[in-house]
Structures are given as structure tokens and as C-alpha cells.
């Protein structure tokens, strides 16, 4: 098979599917923490490896990476750079321009980049640990190239295959690429059928049962689905409590919680996108634990979630595997579920973003949780982001983050939040009328709005 055909087939997949194929074949390749450093397109190519190390002398050297860039003669290369130092850049806009001219497809750094706007402006994809302004000059040197190196615990060889997208970065051994592609394509077809079944209303507990995943490796096709609608509707009390937060947002609710001395702001859980709407609903709590042998269920609980509920998942803050993907997103949307909050990571994020399904997580990664974690309990007390969540507590989430309001204090919190929002609206009105911000804040007691007492 020629290289063009291989790369085209790999381009038709995504990192989630390739990661699953590697799992089936018991191969390492999925990395965590190497994310797009701007809104990069997906990149697929072959690795040109570069090893960096700290500079230990004052002898002048050629700028790192430039010999490797100059040596590129084909248009299928992705620079794979190991040995980066936290806070110190090993990539910038000048070498991005040089790489672009040489038709290099992108750069993946186990390290940092600077001048990221320069890479964005020319459309040059850069993936890595983060961005900084600190130069590598006199701090790092290139010590090798074209040799095996470590990328977040994965050994990458020169000419291995690389795929990177919004969920992260995966490396595929060149010697196994055809096997991985064949299985990945089978997984992709199978997952498409599963999504079709979910869209048609088939219970996700049947669609995502372990026996269905086993069929992927056998290439079998599932029977046709039967339509199914969510029979679980919101109670009158749930609807009343949710309605109390109409017009409120998380900053106002957070201030109300502070004023009442209630811990409820969820730490380190962020929105997947800049949502323009506020998600409010009763918590349907789920707790995951490491998988047994044989492993248990990963997602059957969703058939018991009512319309308007927010699924709140305690995955112990794990970033090593996901507990939510596009099939769950699609099914939740069909079932009228309000959104999902995860103390852990999600995957298949493009589907959630394109369909505007509210997801709030500690991050995103492509590796499946199947056979790694399992559901240990539902509708029980859990902890997420340093906040205790009881079943049916009210969750409020938006582009600012997530807060949880104890059910017994919802009316009290909602009333205080409304008063705070009105005071802030009055401050904005005074400012629009010509008052200084100091005058407006003093007149309406801005500095005491969230103060206890």
C-alpha cells in the first residue's frame, strides 16, 4: 500500500477511533496532555523525531530544530519533539514559517511553544503542553534526531504515523499501520451504526452493551433498532426548583452561596465551549471506580435519567480514560437530558460542540474507559471538584463554570442570587447615567453583596 493511500485512510479517522483500535490490539500510542495550542485542524503524517536537552555550556550552537527542518524533502512530515522544559519554549513563529515553507504538516512538542499567534496567522498546526514567552536560546539544545524518543510515556520511532486533533495526539507504529487502519475503519463503521441506533431511540444500554463492542472486532452488524422515547419526565417539584434560577447565571449563584456560607463552587471543572445559555437541572449522580475482572457496565445508567436532569459523574478526577463520548451525547440529547458534568475527561468533543450539548469536564482525551472503569453506584452522595453533591441537588452551569445548590436551600439561594443580580444591574444603570464606578458601587453596597451577614 502506498503512503498516500495510508495517510488518506488515517485522515478519515479521528484520534478516538485510532486509540480504540490500539486498545484492541494492546498497543501503546495514545498520549495525554499534548493538545492543540490554537484552534488547529487535524494533522496526519509521519514522524520526524527530534530530541532536546537542557543546555549545559556557553558554546554557541545552531538554533535547535533548524537542521531537521532544512533536511525535510517530502510533504508528509510531522515534527515530533521530545525533551521540552516546562516554562521554556522550543518552538516559535520564525521556525513555524520555515516549516510551513518546507510543507511540514505540523509540530507536536512534549514541551512549550511561544509566539503562538504567529503560528496561528500562517495556519501552522502546533500541539504541545502549553504556551510561554520564554525563549529556548541558551536554555535548550538539540541532541539528536531521527532516533526513537519518548512522548508522554509512548515510544515514537522515526517514520511512525501520527494523528492529532482536538482530543489529543496518537502515535501508530509504522510496522502495524495496516492492521490499525483495518480495525479502526471497522470500529468507525460500527460506531456509526451505534449512533444510528441511538438516534432512532434504541436504549443505549443495549447499543453500548459489552457484547456489542465485542462485535466490532468480529465485524458483525447489529439488528435494526426499535423507536424508544424517554418515559421518565421531570417531577413538578423539580420543574419548580429549576424555574427559580431563570435569568440567573453562575456568578450570581456563586455570590449567593458565598453570602449564605454554602460551599458549592465546583473546582477545576470547565465548560467544553463558550455556552451562551445557562444549564439548570437536578443532579443525577453517578460514581465510577476502577474496573473489575471481568469489567462491569460503563454507561447503562443513562436509561434511568429523567428529562431535564443533569448527569453528574464522579470519575475521581481521572484523566487516564474517558466516561463520556458521542454516543452518550447523542442519546442524552434524544432523551432530553439537560447536560453532563464530569470530574474527569470526555471524548468525541466535536459532536457535543456541533450539537450544542452542554458538557462540563476536567479536560478531554480520546482513550476509552471501557475495561478501565465501571459504574459503582448511582443516585448516591458523590464528590466532584471539592463539592459534595447529593442526588437531586440543583446544578447551575454556564460558560463560567459549575455550581451546585443543596436542594434544601434552593429557594433561599435563588432569592439571594436575584437580589445580587438586581443590585449589579442598578450599578450598571448608574454608570450608564454618568456615575463613576466608585460612586455606583458605594451607593448600592457592591462590596457587601456576597459578604456573609
UniProtKB/TrEMBL annotation:
It holds the Pfam family RraA-like. The keyword Metal-binding applies. Keywords: Magnesium, Metal-binding. Its cofactor is Mg(2+). Mg(2+) binds at residue 348. Substrate binds at residues 325-328, 347. The keyword Magnesium applies. GO terms for molecular function: metal ion binding. PANTHER family: 4-HYDROXY-4-METHYL-2-OXOGLUTARATE ALDOLASE 3-RELATED. This is Demethylmenaquinone methyltransferase family protein.
Amino acid at each position: 500500500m502506498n503512503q498516500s493511500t495510508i495517510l488518506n485512510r488515517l485522515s478519515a479517522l479521528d484520534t478516538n477511533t485510532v486509540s480504540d483500535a490500539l486498545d484492541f490490539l494492546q498497543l501503546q500510542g495514545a498520549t495525554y496532555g499534548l493538545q492543540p495550542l490554537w484552534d488547529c485542524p487535524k494533522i496526519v503524517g509521519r514522524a520526524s523525531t527530534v530530541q532536546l536537552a537542557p543546555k549545559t555550556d556557553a558554546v554557541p550552537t545552531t538554533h535547535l530544530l533548524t537542521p531537521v527542518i532544512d533536511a525535510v524533502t517530502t510533504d508528509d512530515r510531522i515534527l515530533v519533539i521530545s525533551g521540552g522544559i516546562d516554562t521554556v519554549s522550543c518552538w516559535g513563529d520564525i521556525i513555524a514559517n520555515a516549516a510551513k515553507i518546507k510543507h511540514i504538516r505540523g509540530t507536536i512538542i512534549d514541551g512549550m511553544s511561544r509566539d503562538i499567534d504567529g503560528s496561528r496567522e500562517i495556519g501552522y498546526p502546533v500541539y504541545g503542553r502549553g504556551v510561554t514567552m520564554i525563549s529556548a536560546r541558551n536554555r535548550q539544545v538539540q541532541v539528536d534526531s531521527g532516533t526513537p524518543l519518548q512522548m508522554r510515556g509512548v515510544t515514537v520511532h522515526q517514520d511512525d504515523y501520527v494523528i492529532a486533533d482536538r482530543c489529543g495526539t496518537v502515535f501508530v507504529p509504522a510496522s502495524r499501520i495496516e492492521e490499525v487502519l483495518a480495525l479502526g475503519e471497522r470500529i468507525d463503521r460500527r460506531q456509526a451504526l451505534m449512533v444510528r441506533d441511538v438516534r432512532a431511540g434504541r436504549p443505549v444500554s443495549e447499543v453500548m452493551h459489552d457484547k456489542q463492542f465485542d462485535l466490532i472486532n468480529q465485524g458483525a452488524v447489529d439488528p435494526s433498532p426499535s423507536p424508544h422515547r424517554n418515559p421518565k419526565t421531570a417531577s413538578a417539584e423539580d420543574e419548580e426548583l429549576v424555574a427559580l434560577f431563570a435569568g440567573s447565571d453562575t456568578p450570581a449563584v456563586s455570590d449567593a452561596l458565598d453570602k449564605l456560607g454554602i460551599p458549592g463552587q465546583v473546582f477545576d471543572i470547565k465548560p467544553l465551549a463558550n455556552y451562551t445559555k445557562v444549564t439548570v437541572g437536578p443532579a443525577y449522580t453517578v460514581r465510577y471506580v476502577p474496573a473489575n475482572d471481568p469489567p462491569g457496565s460503563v454507561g447503562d445508567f443513562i436509561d434511568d435519567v429523567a428529562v431535564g436532569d443533569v448527569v453528574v459523574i464522579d470519575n475521581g478526577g481521572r484523566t487516564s480514560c474517558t466516561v463520556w463520548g458521542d454516543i452518550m451525547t447523542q442519546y442524552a440529547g434524544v432523551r432530553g437530558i439537560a447536560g453532563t458534568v464530569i470530574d474527569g475527561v470526555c471524548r468525541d468533543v466535536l459532536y457535543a460542540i456541533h450539537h450544542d450539548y452542554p458538557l462540563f469536564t476536567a479536560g478531554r482525551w480520546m482513550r476509552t474507559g471501557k475495561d478501565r472503569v465501571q459504574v459503582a453506584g448511582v443516585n448516591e452522595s458523590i464528590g466532584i471538584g471539592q463539592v459534595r453533591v447529593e442526588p437531586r441537588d440543583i446544578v447551575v452551569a454556564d460558560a463560567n463554570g459549575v455550581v451546585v445548590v443543596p436542594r434544601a436551600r434552593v429557594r433561599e439561594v435563588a432569592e439571594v442570587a436575584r437580589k445580587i443580580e438586581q443590585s449589579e444591574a442598578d450599578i450598571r444603570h448608574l454608570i450608564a447615567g454618568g456615575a463613576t464606578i466608585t460612586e455606583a458601587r458605594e451607593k448600592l453596597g457592591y462590596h457587601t453583596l456576597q459578604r456573609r451577614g
